[in-house]
Amino acid sequence: MTASTMNGRLWLAASSLALGAALIATPAAAQDATGASTAENAQDAAKPEQDDAIVVTGFRRALENAINKKKYSEQIVESVSAEDIGKLPDASIAESIARLPGLTSQRLSGRSNNISIRGFAPDFSTTLLNGREQTSTGDNRAVEFDQYPSEIINRVDVYKTPMASVIGQGLSGTVDMRTIRPLDTKKRVIAIGARGSYADLGKLNAGSDDKGYRINGLFVDQNDAGTLGVALGASWVDEPYQIEEFNAWGYPNVTNNGPVVIGGSKSYITSTQLTRLGLNGTLQFRPDPRFTSTLDAFYSDFKDDQIKRGIELPLFWSAAQLQPGFTVADGLVTSGRYTGVKGVIRNDAFQRKAKLYSFGWNNRFEGDNGFNLTGDISYSRTKRNELNVETYAGTGRAAAGASDTISFTSGKNGTVFKPTLNYGDFNTILLTSPQGWGGNQTDANGLRIVGSQDGYYNNRIVNDEIWQGRAEAEKEFTDSFLKSVQLGLNYTDRSKSLRPDEYFLGLKANTNGTTSVAVPVDARVGTSDLGFLGLGPLISYDPLKLVNSGIYNLVRNVYPDVVAKNYSISEKVWTPYLQVNIKSMVGASELTGNIGVQANHTDQSSNGTRATLLGFNANGSPNVTSTRNTDGDTYWDVLPSANLSLRMPGDFVVRIGAAREIIRPRLVDLRNSFDYGVSNSDPGDPARFTCPTGRVCRTVTGNLGNPSLRPFRANAVDVTFEKYFGTKGYLALQGFYKDLQSYIYKLDSPYNYTGFTFANPGTDNNNLPIIINPFGRVNQPINGKGGKLYGIEAAGTLPFDTFVSVLQGFGVTGSVSYTKTKVSPAPGAPATDLPGYSRWVANGTAYYENNGFSLRASARHRSSFIGEVTGFGGERFNRRARPETIIDGQVGYDFGQTGTLSGLSLFLQGQNLTNEPFATVNPNADNQVIDYQRYGRRFLAGFNYRF
């Protein structure tokens, strides 16, 4: 641990402990270090009840709480509130957030797990838990929400404009998840719930499930004096997800400028078993009204256990032959026949395990002289393993074994095949390498794979850690234009590392490069049905059991591209801030808001690997040289912000926000890693290097991270017009404009490799000596000029009884947003869409809730967007996704608070009722389907019971 890190962490502890040594006079209302205020908490608890003669519950109460938060906030904010303690409106936090104006989500394995705000990818936003920054289960900064049980979250706020006193803000927005404060509840609560789930695609893979369950419990209590409160929550999930996945390698031209045809397919049936234990605890101590100490703890143990079975079909890009007589429509071969197809049968396992720990301790003192002190210290850590095991089978190794004749039909839902071989016959389909991929491999100890690899083992080990501490002093004023002044200092210390552990798999029995092996009987689990692809039954076995049985040699992959994945990144950010809060009458209207500034000092460093292949040792193992290097940079960002709200008679509110916004670079882009090699065909730039006569020249290409990257930066303006109907309903029109002053691009640029170490290139096929041209290229993330993003959002919640009393209990809530982007993917390139960007996003919910009965139907729509999909080794890349509309519904009954069944509510939910697929296509070619995934419908039935 460095001296600066030690000093920073000592400061974290001291900032909270020092404030615990004194008490100041009487309570006052001011924002605490976790972003909420005692005044806001009081408003959230009291306002809806003050506005109604009858206190409503359930979904209507959740809407009123969210409207109340929006109405009285000084920022432009969207909220979702629990219908009751431990009961968000949806089974997933991400699904609830995705219904808010200007927000949407992308599905992973059929469930929403991350959020795009105003057309930006998830990495442009940040997520807080009780106002504190959180580590991520992904590779970058974006939090994946399926890590957090919805049952323990009481409210989620999405801030669309920044405020100086909120730390860890994103460029597109900030998501703050809030848990229960037990002393604010003021009474004992015991709540339990359970639900069963059913996936209507059935048990796609042999040995998988189509039914699951989740259970949860929550306990909240206080002592009689109201000085000590505790909240304890627990949630357990064990649920299956089933997926039918078609994937095309691509669409090459049959002839020059001729029609295109599917070039290959890699399609699966995927069964996922998601298990998650979530624990949450809060202890509040208020021995005196002047002092509150709050201790929060959260733990999540998450496992996503996935089995994928399918057939990889090398077609046009292989020795297979497309036969004459095919049909063509709109430039695509829509039906035809391939001969000589050697399919690669895949039984793959993917396991993602993550443990997340989060702790926070907040102390707040409030004085009768208007002087308040706050101290906060927090810690968040994620430990993650992603294991991906591929195993191959087929009729024989390389040229050996039978080939297949396969007819195919391509359409808007992908391609369906008709084979002649039986891929479900264990006597025909053997463990082998049907395409001869990989070639000979040897590790440093002489362990060998002969001829070709029979699978691949990839374990990615990720650790992410955040220490954060904060101290703030505030002075309140009375009878003044100034409501209060806040002065604070925050310190954040984040470190993240990735260690790859990758191996080639080769059958031990394959000693001569020709052997294939029958699947051991004890690893077989029967057959799985690939009927949705027309491929019929498929041999099925347990790939992890096979690997653990010792049937394979595991030869470590030490090639440069793998070695260079290893990195560790450190960020230390000091943030002093000043915020002036305003409250004053302007005629008959009230002007409230804040003006402030943050100054971020960032010290970032990255330790990575520079690796190159020098050749091969005598035993055939790759001779790779690698060195570890550390580099980084320091810089300042000054971030002014202003939020002003004019609250006019008639419940009209006009808001304006203006700010300088940033989001620091994706963590993988900061890695100080460099892998490079000699191209097989590119002679390089003749203007910089002349190839001698009688020689063959090759240039060098590389991939390089950038530890000196600066953040994405934008100047932003937001304007909102809002009309409220008490806290029952509202209408809002919002406009925003973001001028991106800097953007991070991946750019190929010239690079001088003079002085670098290379293997002896030898000669080419014509025995001509090869010379290396050192003036090559490198692909690297860089800072460049940005672009513009702007849009308009219309939103509202309208309970119909506000206008027609006989429609008591009926209402609608929803929004529609239009966003336009003008951002180039590289300097000088034409503007294109940002990842995660949809031009149109809309959602709506119609509901009825009265006399205990509840019924609601919801729809979420997003237009075409650039989606993020997972590729080989867990790496992610972007593809154009088709528009999608998700329809959900719920019906329930609440027995109320009197009678024998008081406190009990029953419900039935249906998700993705129209079985909407996720589909990606080639740009400007909607009939060239790359991915087509069906998740099926999900049904959930359960109860909640509150004592």
UniProtKB/TrEMBL annotation:
Family matches, as SUPFAM superfamilies: Porins
Pfam families for this protein: Plug
CDD domains, A to Z: ligand_gated_channel
Keywords: Cell outer membrane, Membrane, Receptor, Signal
Keyword Membrane: yes
Chain ranges of the TonB-dependent receptor plug domain: 71-173
The protein's name: TonB-dependent receptor
Main location group: membrane
Signal peptide range in chain numbering: 1-30
